[in-house]
Design a protein that fits this description.
Elements (H helix, E strand, L loop, with lengths): L2 H14 L6 H25 L15 H4 L1 H8 L4 H15 L4 H16 L27 H26 L2 H4 L5
Length: about 180
């Protein structure tokens, strides 16, 4: 799934949190993919001599096997061990909203179902056990990515609107508080 959809799902997790802050959960929802966007994508583009260091879909084929250390940049932050050993202590130490942990975990959960083939999820990395999802986001046409972003935005906006609707008391008698 794309980084923006993950961020929006993180924001939705923030809406469900105690203090309902969404910026930090948005960032933590996107965080596992930030590592690959800043380091892995340019590396793959460089290896294949791509303009602007932007890899094409075919460039990823066989990448995990050919560059295991570089692929660890993607694998490590997508591991439950990373969540438990790095993200949870960081959130607690910095006193960030605990919904950041949920947002990060939601990213990992969604990736289990939405990654297949070369980048199927390895939630227990460095153990090599992988789960095969039903979709290959690297092959997704722009319309499918737009659909994912749109549905994620609707989820967040629905929770945001519902929370505000309930806060005004409009849900009780349809009138709101006068």
């Amino acid at each position: 799934m794309d980084i923006l959809s993950h961020g929006l799902m993180g924001a939705a997790a923030g809406e469900l949190g105690h203090k309902r802050r969404v910026l930090w959960p948005f960032l933590f929802g996107a965080l596992p993919d930030v590592f690959q966007a800043l380091a892995l994508y340019p590396f793959v583009g460089y290896v294949h001599g791509r303009a602007w260091l932007i890899p094409e879909h075919a460039d990823w084929s066989g990448f995990r096997g050919a560059y295991p250390l570089a692929s660890a940049i993607w694998e490590a932050p997508h591991s439950l061990f990373f969540l438990l050993l790095c993200i949870v202590p960081l959130v607690l130490k910095l006193r960030l909203p605990r919904s950041c942990i949920a947002a990060y975990g939601l990213h990992l959960l969604v990736d289990v179902f939405t990654h297949s083939g070369e980048w199927s999820a390895a939630p227990f990395w460095p153990l090599s056990w992988k789960l095969e999802g039903y979709w290959d986001p690297w092959k997704a046409p722009p319309e499918q990515i737009a659909l994912c972003v749109g549905l994620s935005a609707l989820l967040w906006l629905g929770l945001w609107w519902g929370r505000r609707f309930r806060a005004t008391g409009a849900g009780e008698n349809g009138q709101g508080e006068a």
